[in-house]
Write a structure and sequence with these properties.
The chain has about 210 residues and is α+β, with helices and mostly antiparallel strands. It has a single domain, classed as Aminopeptidase. It has 6 helices and 9 strands; from the N terminus they run ββαααββββαβαββα. Strands 1, 2, 3, 4, 5, 6, 7, 8 and 9 form a 9-stranded mixed β-sheet that branches. The structure holds coenzyme A (COA). Coenzyme A (COA) binds next to strand 6, helix 4, helix 5 and helix 6.
C-alpha cells in the first residue's frame, strides 16, 4: 500500500530482515507525557495496585495479584532490558507524572527471524486518555525502527475489545482469530492475533489522536 496522508512512509529494506542492532541502551524512553523505564523490585506495590483489580485480570491468564505475587513479579521483571542478548526480553514500567500507570513487555519468540511478541497492561484509572497508546507506540518504534524486531505480534482474548482497539490504533493488522485455544478462568476462549511488519503503514501520532478522539 502506498503511503497516504497520515501514514509514515515505510522502509522497504526492513522487509528483508536486514535489521539494525538492538537499542537496549536507549531505555529509558520519554514521550511528551510519559517515562518508560526498567522495572525494579520497588515497583511491586505500584504494579499490585492495578494487577489486583478484577477488571484488569479479567482477560489475563493471571488471577488478581496479592502482595507476594507482586513482589515476585517485580523481581522477575527487573533488569530485563535486552532483546539482542539474554534475556531477549524487555519489561518496562510506564510512569505518568511520577506514578506507574502500566507496564509493557516485549520478548523475542523467533530470534533468527526477528519475531517478537508484545503485551501491555494499564491501570484503568488512567485509561481513556491515550496514555497506553502513546506508551505502546513509543516501544513499537524503538524495537522495530531501532531494534531487532521485524515482525511484532500481539495476542489477546477476543472479548478484550479495548486491547484490540489499541492494537488497531497502532497500525497492527488483525491476522486472525484462533477459536477456543486458551483455557482462561474456567472456559475456553478465542484469541485475536495482530501483527506489525516494517512495511505496514503506521499512523502518525496526530493521526492516532484524530482517529480515536
Ligand atoms: C488494553 C488497555 C491498555 C486499553 O486502555 P485504554 O484506556 O483504552 O487505552 P489508552 O490509554 O490508549 O486510551 C485510548 C482511549 O482514549 C481515547 N483517547 C482520548 N484521548 C486520546 C489521545 N490523545 N490519543 C489516543 N486516544 C485517546 C481513545 O478514543 C480511546 O478510547 P476508545 O478505545 O473508547 O476509542 C486497558 O484496557 C488495559 O490495560 N486492560 C487490562 C489489561 C489487559 O487486558 N491487557 C491486554 C492484555 S492482551
Amino acid at each position: 500500500m502506498p503511503p497516504t496522508d497520515g501514514v509514515e512512509p515505510t522502509d522497504p529494506t526492513r522487509a528483508s530482515g536486514d535489521v539494525p542492532a538492538d537499542a537496549a541502551t536507549d531505555w529509558p524512553l520519554r514521550t511528551d507525557r510519559l517515562l518508560l523505564r526498567g522495572i525494579s523490585p520497588a515497583d511491586a506495590p505500584a504494579l499490585q495496585r492495578y494487577y489486583a483489580r478484577a477488571d484488569v485480570a479479567r482477560y489475563l491468564l493471571d488471577d488478581p495479584w496479592d502482595a507476594d505475587r507482586a513482589r515476585a513479579e517485580a523481581e522477575r521483571r527487573t533488569g530485563r532490558l535486552r532483546l539482542d542478548g539474554p534475556p531477549r526480553a524487555v519489561n518496562l514500567a510506564v510512569e505518568h507524572e511520577g506514578t506507574v500507570i502500566g507496564d509493557i513487555a516485549v520478548w523475542m519468540t523467533g530470534r533468527q527471524r526477528g519475531e517478537a511478541e508484545i503485551s501491555w497492561v494499564f491501570d484503568p484509572d488512567s485509561g481513556g486518555r491515550g496514555l497506553a497508546t502513546d506508551a505502546v507506540a513509543a516501544v513499537v518504534t524503538q524495537v522495530m525502527d531501532h531494534g531487532p524486531v521485524r515482525r511484532l505480534v500481539a495476542r489477546m482474548d477476543a472479548r478484550n475489545t479495548r486491547s484490540a482497539r489499541l492494537a488497531a490504533r497502532l497500525g497492527m493488522v488483525r491476522e486472525g482469530r484462533h477459536r477456543a485455544d486458551w483455557w482462561i478462568k474456567g472456559e475456553w476462549t478465542d484469541t485475536l492475533v495482530f501483527a506489525l511488519l516494517p512495511t505496514d503503514p503506521r499512523p502518525r501520532r496526530s493521526e492516532t489522536e484524530r482517529s480515536t478522539g
